[in-house]
Design a protein that fits this description.
By secondary structure, this protein is an alpha/beta fold. It has two domains: 213 residues, 3-Layer(aba) Sandwich (Rossmann fold); 97 residues, Rossmann fold (3-Layer(aba) Sandwich). 44% of the residues lie in helices and 15% in strands. It contains 15 helices and ten strands. The protein has a six-stranded mixed β-sheet with strand order 1-2-10-7-8-9, with helices on both faces. A four-stranded parallel β-sheet has the order 5-4-3-6. Helix 4 runs parallel beside helix 5, helix 7 crosses helix 9 and helix 12 crosses helix 13. It starts with a helix and ends with a helix. The structure holds ligand AN7.
């Protein structure tokens, strides 16, 4: 399958002949979740964005942002990130032959994401501060230097990410009543709503934030956001107004879910649906289970990132391995008991 820009060129700000930096992102699976549907009392589908090339939905926006940076003659791309944007920026910068630099909160990004950013050769800066401080600093940096900022305040990011909504509308023939989605910096919910509106679909947009990092729910920025879902540990979302508009004009809502609810949904998806997403992604399912989706008959939950990104949280949640002597009896007992 060709990448997003080629598939949706007529709906994206790229002309034929423009440079395209792609890893064949998008075209991710949309799978029915029978056990989750039973628990939620409605038909639930899961959009597996962890199947993108770097393991998260960020690649949809990054193919557009980095292609535009090349078109503009940029030599470097930079972002602030809780991890996934950093991994995606680093990969697409490598692909384009651009310098990549990422600013992440020190000690607060999942191991897999750090490994990705470093392997792709980006300059990785660990800030002694949180994501919101990092974003404020890169915004200033990009004003003063000829560098492309590829956070979701970059319009090309939103344009690329709206294609996930196109894929859902195509797959379900526009028959969906609600979309459940985790909200951090609020770029993705903004992008989905734009994509749905462009195709004339109007599902209720149900955004979910971690309780310790829920500025949109509280109606005020959170100075010291905290949650096990490190990807959405964000206290002052850049796309605040647009996210609130998406939820209010679609008849949706924004709600909080506790870390406990997030981890329960994370384990349930892995054990009962065979789907390993990262904790932040499970906030969409936790939200559906905790708050419902009104009278929606068909719901899509967006699983934004792959579980392999964060092996540490997984190992803390999962059962222990069983050690065993190399003898048949012992193996038989270990396997069958
Ligand atoms: C797995 O990587 O902000 O509401 O810097 O990685 O569009 O911010 C990540 C966000 C949900 C929230 N799920 O999306 C970053 C970053 C996962 C994420 C979100 C993120 P937005």
């Amino acid at each position: 399958m060709p990448g997003l820009i080629e598939r949706y060129r007529d709906r994206l700000p790229f002309a034929p002949g423009d440079p395209v930096v792609s890893l064949d992102e998008g075209a991710t699976p949309l799978v029915l979740a029978p056990r989750l549907s039973e628990r939620a009392g409605t038909e639930v589908w899961l959009k597996l964005e962890g199947a993108n090339p770097t393991g998260s939905f960020k690649d949809r926006g990054m193919t557009c942002a980095v292609s535009a940076a090349v078109r503009e003659g940029s030599h470097a791309v930079v972002c602030a990130s809780t991890g996934n944007t950093a991994a995606s920026t680093a990969a697409y910068a490598a692909r384009a032959g651009l310098r990549g630099a990422v600013i992440v909160p020190e000690g607060k990004i999942a191991t897999g994401k750090l490994a990705q950013a470093l392997m792709h050769g980006a300059r990785v800066v660990a800030l002694r501060g949180n994501f919101d401080e990092a974003l404020a600093l890169v915004r200033e940096l990009a004003r003063e230097q000829p560098i492309s900022l590829v956070n979701s305040i970059n319009e090309f990011r939103i344009e690329g990410q709206k294609t996930a909504a196109f894929e859902i509308v195509e797959a379900l023939d526009a028959e969906l009543d609600a979309l459940c989605i985790p909200v951090g910096n609020a770029g993705n919910i903004t992008a989905y709503w734009r994509g749905f509106k462009e195709l004339g679909a109007r599902p209720r947009m149900l955004g979910f934030q971690a309780a310790g990092a829920a500025p949109l729910v509280r109606g005020a920025p959170v100075a010291h956001p905290e949650t096990v879902a490190s990807a959405i540990r964000i206290g002052n979302p850049a796309r605040w107004e647009e996210a609130m508009d998406a939820m209010s004009s679609s008849g949706g809502a924004v709600e909080a879910v506790s870390d406990e609810q997030i981890l329960a949904a994370y384990s349930f998806l892995a054990r009962s649906e065979g789907i390993f997403c990262e904790p932040a992604s499970a906030a969409s399912v936790a939200g559906l289970l905790a708050h419902g989706a009104g009278d929606a008959q068909r719901v899509v939950c967006v699983l934004t990132g792959n579980g392999l990104k964060d092996p540490q949280t997984a190992l803390e949640q999962a059962g222990a391995v069983i050690t065993c002597e190399p003898e048949l009896d012992a193996v038989e007992r270990a396997v069958l008991q």
